[in-house]
Amino acid sequence: MLNLKTKFSFFIFFFIFFLFLPHFSLALTAMSPILEIEVKPGESQTGFLKLYNETAADLILTSSLESFKAGDETGQPVFLLPEQKDKFLDWFTELPTEILLRPQQVILVPFRIQVPANATPGGYYAAIFWQTNSGQTKDGSGAGISGRIATLVFLKVAGELNESAQLVGFETIPKNNYFFHFPLNFSVRVNNQGNIHLQPQGQIILSDWFSRKIALDINQEKRFILPGSIRRFDVVWESGANKNFWQNFLAELYLEFKNLPFGPYQAELSLNYGARHQTLTGSLNFWFIPWRLILAIVILIIFLVTFWRINRRVKELKNKLEKLVNEKNQGN
Q1: CB 225 within 8 A of CB 231
Q2: How far apart (Å, rounded) are the C-alpha atoms in residues 58 and 78?
Q3: What is the pTM of this model?
Q4: Rounded CA gap, 59 and 135, in Å?
Q5: Degrees (nearest 5) of the Cα angle 228, 273, 154?
């Protein structure tokens, strides 16, 4: 059994150890997180990656290549296992296997893509990863700076490309015909049926029964859809507040007063994509009934009617009083 003094000594030791133990994380920024490069078969092209060391220590980084594909409909990439790597990764040459970044240093890292003459036109997708060398800093202290970052490379091999897309979904979220408050959310789902990544952009035009029109942009961020995948684009008409009840009520009442949304609406979608500016279209209908605005108008009407009735009653009493005073004066 350890005596009380020994236990206390162990406690002090571990307290000091964990208190002063340095905590490290990878503070490395890829200032070029996405690269889109086009190369003709039989030709090569040089690309550049920009990296920034945010730490106060030297970083030794090693590079690696992985192919990726689309994950879920949000566009999150899924990196393939080493045994699933594609042969096109061999086209990436002259990429340094190891680099040194000084504190606060920004560097450009060159690499070259050599496309074979017999390469099939279309899209090829690779991730260039950078990670610390076994958690070692330049002085070899082994301080645990760990993690990795990636630059996604969207490689287009020029030639006869198949740019084809299908609109597989255009609906409100939730899928209703009647809405009573903001925000109103739309979901646009597009299936890339071609062999090259697409970047559709367009608008949803809302028209009410007064022929007023409101334009909502789709894919302002210019996100890609990879071949053989479906991507969902979320569009919001007037995002609401996220505070307490009364702040939310007043914020949404203001939005309803600003837009005056009431009655039937038609939503018409138009998306353009590809080099030939192909178009996808869709439409849907819904009703918007702004209950806060209606409630406010009803309360205002009740207030005005009540004020008018009170004012009329006060005038009647005033007239009666004046009449009694006049009759009394005439009697005297």
Answers
A1: yes
A2: 30
A3: 0.79
A4: 9
A5: 55
**248 pLDDT tier (thresholds 50, 70, 90):** confident
Amino acid letter, residue 117: A
Between CA 314 and CA 240 the distance in angstroms is 44
Confidence of residue 8 (pLDDT cuts 50, 70, 90): very low
Reported as a pLDDT band with limits 50, 70 and 90, residue 4 is: very low
Residue 192 is which amino acid? N
